Amino acid sequence: MKLDLKVKIAGVELANPLMTASGCCGYGEELADIFPLSKLGALVSKSITLNPRLGHPPPRTAETTSGMLNAIGLANVGIDKFVTDKIPFLKKQKTKIIVNVAGSKLEEYVEVCSRLNDIECVDMIELNISCPNVDEGGMEFGADPIMTEKSLKAVKKVFNRPVIAKLSPNVTSIVQIAKAAEQGGADAFSVINTLLGMVVDAETWHTKITNNKGGLSGPAIKPVALQMVHAVYSNSSLPIIGIGGIRSTSDVIEFLLCGATAVQIGTGLFIDPMLIVKIEKELKQYMKRKKCNSIYDLIGKVRKY
Ligand SMILES: Cc1cc2nc3c(=O)[nH]c(=O)nc-3n(C[C@H](O)[C@H](O)[C@H](O)COP(=O)(O)O)c2cc1C
């Protein structure tokens, strides 16, 4: 049998399980200068909100031990400009397009998603109910099971393709939130968004980003993400997109073994924008070596004590 990297998320077929993570390659234009986006299983856009947002003033990122802290504050062009300026580019790309949607009120999420319903090249929506860097909405929705279910239900009414719920690790039970999202009609999960953190300079006594607190990403969060992917996998049959600290092919395999069907790479792209292309090649070599014909031979196959 031929080696096959294809996977399906809620009926949408991806050429491989490798996606960009939201907020880590804008709207894809710069990445397309580096490699053809057809190399991606899917491109995930920056979070789009109803109105344009400038985000927080700089500095809004800081390096940490094995990671980075960011509080960009959902800076984005807003749905109108996204449709007029970014969709024409995205439409031409030979990859699946996932638009990440955020908002500070439920009505905003609904309005943005209903606008996206009319745009054919948008294959799926990823609902960001997990952003730790905004004062309203974001993580508040994703930390409350009732709001989570309500958000999913409302969005599913206006968008007729799959909706992925992006879950926050900043909760007591991610399984409880996943179940609420599933109840609301979620078609898949993205696990995880960033962990809430803070970075301080011992010399100046100052916090290092203007929002003071921010979202931690990068290798530091990978073990947290793996555990959460595995917990959601063990309690739901919906497909999971694993996210958190991926820097190598073995990181991707660890997520697949813990139950992810696909993965997203964020912070790793800042270090090496070609990372996904390298991983795609190495993943094939790994599968040959392990005599796996399909990604599905790996999903959820972690051996536990
Ligand atoms: C600079 C930066 C901006 C981000 N912006 C968004 C965003 O707009 N929406 C979102 O859902 N997640 C956003 N994230 C979170 C990532 O999509 C991802 O969930 C997280 O960084 C963990 O993956 P990583 O360790 O591979 O970076 C952002 C992360 C970073 C580092």
In helices, the fraction of residues equals 25-40%
**Order of helices and strands, N to C?**
EEEHEEEHEHEHHEHEEEHEHEHH
- Could you tell me the radius of gyration in angstroms? 18 Å
Structural class: alpha/beta
Give the strand order, joined by hyphens, for the main sheet: 3-14-13-10-9-8-7-4
Average pLDDT score: 96
Task: Characterise the protein shown here.
It is a single chain. By secondary structure, the protein is of the alpha/beta class. It has one domain: TIM Barrel (Alpha-Beta Barrel). It has 10 helices and 14 strands. The chain has an 8-stranded parallel sheet. Strand 13, helix 8 (249-257) and strand 14 (262-265) form a beta-alpha-beta unit. Helix 6 (174-184) packs across helix 7 and helix 8 packs across helix 10. It binds flavin mononucleotide. Flavin mononucleotide is lined by residues 21-24, 46-47, 68, 70, 72, 74, 100, 128, 131, 166, 193-194, 217-218, 221, 243-246, 265-268.
Question: Would you summarize the structure shown here?
Answer:
The protein has 305 residues and is α/β, with parallel strands linked by helices.
Indicate the topology.
Elements: E1 7-9, E2 12-14, E3 18-20, H1 29-32, E4 42-44, E5 61-64, E6 67-70, H2 78-91, E7 96-101, H3 106-117, E8 124-128, H4 139-143, H5 145-158, E9 163-167, H6 174-184, E10 188-191, E11 195-198, E12 213-217, H7 222-235, E13 240-243, H8 249-257, E14 262-265, H9 267-271, H10 275-289
Parallel strand pairs: 3-14, 4-7, 7-8, 8-9, 9-10, 10-13, 13-14
Antiparallel strand pairs: 1-2, 5-6, 6-12, 11-12
The structure holds flavin mononucleotide.
